[in-house]
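Re: export button greyed out
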Amino acid sequence: MSALDVDGMGARRALAGIADDLSDGDDLVVAHARAVWSCLVEPGDRIAGALIAALGPVRALEVAVASRGSGDEAARAGVELAELAKARERWHPRGGDAPERLATARRAGARIVTPEDHAWPRRLDDLGPFAPVCLWVLGDTAPLGSADPAVALVGARASSAYGNFVAEDLAAGAAAAGIAVVSGAAYGIDGAAHGGALAAGGVTIALLAGGVERPYPAGHRDLLERIAARGVVAAEVPCGASPTKWRFLARNRLIAAMTDATVVVEAAWRSGALNTAHHAAALGRPLGAVPGAVTSATSAGCHRLLREAQAECITGIADMCELLGLGAGLELDGSTGADGAVGEGGGNVVGGVARRGADDRTRLLDALSERSARTTLDIARRAGLGPDDVAILLGLLELDGVAERRSGGWVRTKPPKTAPLW
Amino acid sequence: MSALDVDGMGARRALAGIADDLSDGDDLVVAHARAVWSCLVEPGDRIAGALIAALGPVRALEVAVASRGSGDEAARAGVELAELAKARERWHPRGGDAPERLATARRAGARIVTPEDHAWPRRLDDLGPFAPVCLWVLGDTAPLGSADPAVALVGARASSAYGNFVAEDLAAGAAAAGIAVVSGAAYGIDGAAHGGALAAGGVTIALLAGGVERPYPAGHRDLLERIAARGVVAAEVPCGASPTKWRFLARNRLIAAMTDATVVVEAAWRSGALNTAHHAAALGRPLGAVPGAVTSATSAGCHRLLREAQAECITGIADMCELLGLGAGLELDGSTGADGAVGEGGGNVVGGVARRGADDRTRLLDALSERSARTTLDIARRAGLGPDDVAILLGLLELDGVAERRSGGWVRTKPPKTAPLW
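Workaround output, generated via the alternate export path:
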């Protein structure tokens, strides 16, 4: 396979302009081997992942391009010889494409980032043998390797105005809180999420299913250029690769794996966003879903996640921060406020003892009139409380300024402070 | 206390037209004692509940109306003498009202239902000493005691058109499935729930905070008349009692206790409906909440229940039936259909082995063109699969009618059957 020059100078030539900050010869050879690997495999190739993990990318590639043998090394990787033979059958026909793919990357200004780089997103390591062999990147590579929090905001292409608004709002909130927004650059929710993050001056990362040099979808060419200029556009497939359905599904695992949590903003009953959600759950990453009207088909998938996948209900940026484990110190709006207790505004008759004082107060206020003065006895009868208790409680209400002595008894001076019941 | 005639003839006179199907003298005396009790206490009076449970309503009432003593009997009820003395202070001033309240019930055509009746809703027994001493009823008493499933549909007074629609829809679905709809007759969600049940010819029960002879709210006079004519209007307070704030809160526990599950359709961040939800949770009854737009203030309380009270997300009648434990055989719409698996439409790369076949098929379909015929080798290279596997898979796709042999290779005959990705 001509694409593999396993020496420093050959690798330097092949990677010129792609990995030009690699000064060390070994680094160059490793990066070059990974670049070639990305040309040979489809995403998530378990045999390739196992060989690379066991033998390193360079030796693994030498085993891959050999036409036979290497049984001992395959065994070390836990790969059976029959599996290796089958894998070679699918890898070899692609070997000849590698030089052209690297030339395309060079022309497009794409850079390679590998697990050996500081800029490698360490969260991807959780994918084990299904991790990408490298990433191809347009834009600044530094945000990829950042340990700052990151959230996946994904959802329907055919989104509603409501969904777009919520996606933009969550993305802007994330940007304000220093959280990177990761999505797939699709029409609808993905685009709104990227756009919201950009508009708020935040970091956003677009993961593509095809080569990074192909704007996909075409209508998002401008958006992708803005993301590349101020964030990151990345893909595991090499330049020149087309975005196939399989690669969309594989790309979804990267969106889930590269983030601390996934939030589905809008999704139909069957939606690709559910595939991303599934990957997040499989990786043990927190999963959130934004509710919507039950009459809206574009929220049916979100409600399904709430019901069937125990997704957290996300109503705003505060809920999203809580999902990311950033609850404390990041209460950005009132949606999850100080008083979390359900029904605290109302008396609890079932277990009434604890709230006796508040309940008696309610009953006493009920028994007072704003217009006509009532005697203590009359108030006691109306409230169903003993006259002695009423005398004491009226004094307390007077101190609170809600009851007042008049000739002939007591009146309520203003309506009760608590909100009216429904 | 003149209202208590503890003999058959006195009770018969007092209850004429109120409990006239009670033929037995003892029954009459018991029902009369409970009728008087309902005039003495506010809802959820624990001391009254304990005395009645220990001594029976008649003897308990004799203890209550005595001015002192009865220490032994109080002790049997677990009531301290000081508590009893205090309770007498609040009960005695109301004794004189009882005859007028019973006369009002008679004029209004209200009937009394007691725990001794077949028509007593047995679910209320879960309230223990906080259970009502009796119910005052307009309409047919039989549905109260029915063992058929019942659901509480409650929510905001200031509901949206969306909330009203969903409440009507759920109520109509409940009616069609033989589920009684219980609510509080308030404006907004409550009214929509009752109306939806009536329109669908179902059973509906309105629980009021004041006397059943007072239409409350006044604007629901017609609705309450229709409910009384074809369902049940009930209250634990006697006729003539006004609907105070305390009584609304107490009434909410009855709505929760009389049903198998409570569903909050729409509720603001602080809403009386959350109080009903709290009672349902405290009683261990299933709790559901209908989601809505996160931008809608009238859904904020529902989302709070989903987040903080682990309420089930209810998107339609099928979800509601599942909440009631009626899932099997009651799949009335498609919202919880046959295929519950999340993300099943997409390949799972993280744990990809199980779905290998479906994944390979996707990759092969990706590699076929509808326009130009491609060779097996070309298809294998594009799909990243071995040529032998491709040859076999192409045969299978041909059998499925999605691929076709042409001169020069293979074409895709129609788009893939699965839905497009987002």
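Residues 8-100 of chain B form one domain. The button fix ships in the next patch.
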